[in-house]
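Task: encode each sequence below as structure tokens.

Item 1
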Amino acid sequence: MTTSGTARGWARLGLGAATLGAIAGAAAYGARELLTRQAAVARTRINHHALGEVAPDADKVWKKRYGDPVELLVLGDSIAAGLGADAPKHTLGGGLARRVAKRTGRAVRLHTAARVGSESSELAGQLAGLPPGYRADVAVVVVGGNDVTHRVPTADSVRHLTDAIELLGARGTPVVVGTCPDLGALRPVPQPLRSLGSRASRQLAAAQRDAALATGARAVSLAHVVGPFFITNPDEMFSLDRFHPSTHGYKRTASAMLPSVLAALGYAETVPFGHHAPARSPGQGSQPDGSAVS
């Protein structure tokens, strides 16, 4: 997610949210004015230029000496790409690659197709840009924040996510979806605009979870597994722009997503709270407790 695009998105979110419901007449005008002013405040508080627009390049074979590499694909937006991390090993992909290698005893070849600023509609393009014949052993998708700030209808966001999961499933690749983070953790955004963003992001996250499970993918509710750390320790968890995760934020996120990634690879049978497995994965029969058993 680009920071300048995010700021404009907050303005659009505020204007759109103010027109919802039964607000009318002078009340509606006052609400629009308030949220527009708050979007302007958010623009001044978020450091648009602190990180640039390019995430560290983490694509390589991690722990090559282990051999028999796992093919790890990462799709999505700036969080998936790792914008805000201090070094390649601290990006989401780099952090997952190192942790998967340690737990499996295998090397991990990372391919990051995620791009800064992407919405869910761009997942198809990220898949189309993969090398011919490429097939990952597991794909991780984190997307949705830009959909919220740009007021993309939830149904459209979910449709694009579902299409991507189905395309990966057709290639034999299991998918782990990290659902949309809670935008209510963004302290630079004043109230009540922050609450509106929180509500919208949580609604999208729930829809993403349901769509992922219905399509045979796993889902990790980021608002539940790492969201509290961002709320209680914002100075540590956010990067210089006060919007994207810091190195510590990515460490927490990679560690939180690891159980579902290992389960998708067949190296774990159970997953903790906030992780969700489909009752039926592609090519598998039904399981008695899809929320905890791979």
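Item 2
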Amino acid sequence: MSRVALILLTLAVVAVVLGFSSTYTLSEHEQAVITRFGQPRGQSITEPGLHFKQPFVDTVNRFDKRWLDWRGDPNQIPTKDKKYIWVDTFGRWRIVDPLRFFQRLRDERNAQSRLDDIIDGETRNTIASFALIEAVRSTNRPFEDDEYTTEAERGESLEQVSQGRDKLTRQIRDRAAEIVKEFGVELVDVQIRRINYVDEVQVKVFERMISERRRTAERSRSEGMGRAAEVRGQRERDLKEIRSEAYRKAQEITGTADAEATKIYAEAFGRDPEFYQFMRTLEAYPQVVDRSTSLFLGSDSEFYRYLRSSAKK
């Protein structure tokens, strides 16, 4: 390779390197601040596309335009009515002034740490200024009272809220949002993700709930046993009534049958008394006399009359 070609190749490489180092692109969700030796140069770059900078000496600091998540750590906070609870919060924020954001916080990591201090502090101040019921409920809608509602829940249902959870979270957001404006940050939402009693109080609450449920179970069991006894009693009464009615009908049928049989016997006796008496006597013989029976009858016994007549024949 000739010397001229080598020089041209070197110049081409240098031009390419200079071209790449003097340009940069921003996507739709990005914004940037240009710094030279650590100091910001000019205004924030918020438009997407191709942009130019001084090669080698300018640095592109990119920041996200989109809404970002903030997740706080659960904090132990006493309420105004002296109930210690854990409060877990989350929020949504974004960078609206990249230059100020860079000057005050530098990056998202520091921003998250600063948001922790601000939002957690406002959450603590707000929760401590109100009773627990204000942080738990949003409206005064009454609880649905059923057989499983405990006495404690019935008592709490009578308490009225003046602010409610929604207003408390808006108060936390508004106060925190006013503070974070100086960092070039917009805080759009803060919500309470979870509220729970501290461990010591939680054990007592669970014990109370268990006791209430046991009382409810005992009451339900007692009511069930009473209902079962009532059903069994009604069954016995129905059974006796059915048996009594059946016995009455059976007696009526038996009486009717006996009357009909007596009528038939009477008619038969009236037609031929001698034959009727003969048949009744024959029916009596097997019931009175068997192989182990000894009869001592006189020769003129009426019971022996047909046997004697038969012997004569």
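Check on item 2: The first strand starts at residue 23 and ends at 26. The two ends are 167 Å apart (CA to CA).
End of task.
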